[in-house]
Amino acid sequence: MEATNMTLKILLPYKIFAVKTGVTRIVAETSSGSFGVLPQRLDCVAALEPGILTYESDADGEAFIAVDTGVLVKTGENVMVSVRNASGGVSLELLHDAVEREFGEHDEEEEKNRSVLREMEGSFINQLMRYYHGK
User: Fold this and answer.
1) Domain 6-134: which topology?
2) CA atoms in the 13 A half-sphere facing the CB of 57
3) What is the pLDDT of residues 31-63, one digit of tens each?
């Protein structure tokens, strides 16, 4: 019995980035390395790292989309990829550059924000300790 093809839907926080039908395979990046999905694969969930998502379909052949961190969920014939940001439609080399440049900037901003929050939390705890020990 021949396996049916998959439908790939890539979701961003503010819109649907792409819907691809007739997809025969998908490869995405996780913290453990490349993660492949074929139509007959059991349902699964994977946390995605910034990288290049590769898919193949009759209509597009082998195609590449740069994706930010997110999650991939396969249920039956449907594969949903929900990520913070994505870009496509350019050469593979330009997509690699985009991943390093654009998605790397988000990570730097998040680390700065976390650092500021840690400082604020530490200051707040110190003030609470002085208040309770001062009375």
Assistant:
1) ATP Synthase; domain 1 (2.60.15)
2) 14
3) 889 999 999 999 999 999 888 899 999 888 888
How many Cβ atoms sit within 10 Å of the Cβ of residue 104?
13
Q: Cα dist. 130→1, 78, 121, 135 in Å?
A: 72, 56, 14, 9
Residues 6+ apart with CB under 8 A from 88: 17, 18, 63, 64, 65, 66, 95
| Distance, CA of 117 to CA of 32 (rounded, Å) | 29
Cα angle for residues 9, 15, 17 (degrees, 5° grid)? 40
Torsional class of 61: left (φ above 0), alpha (ψ -120 to 50), beta (otherwise): left
Q: Are 48 and 73 in contact (CB under 8 A)?
A: no
Q: What is the pLDDT of residues 92-106, one digit of tens each?
A: 777 777 667 666 655
- Six token digits for residue 22: 């007739």
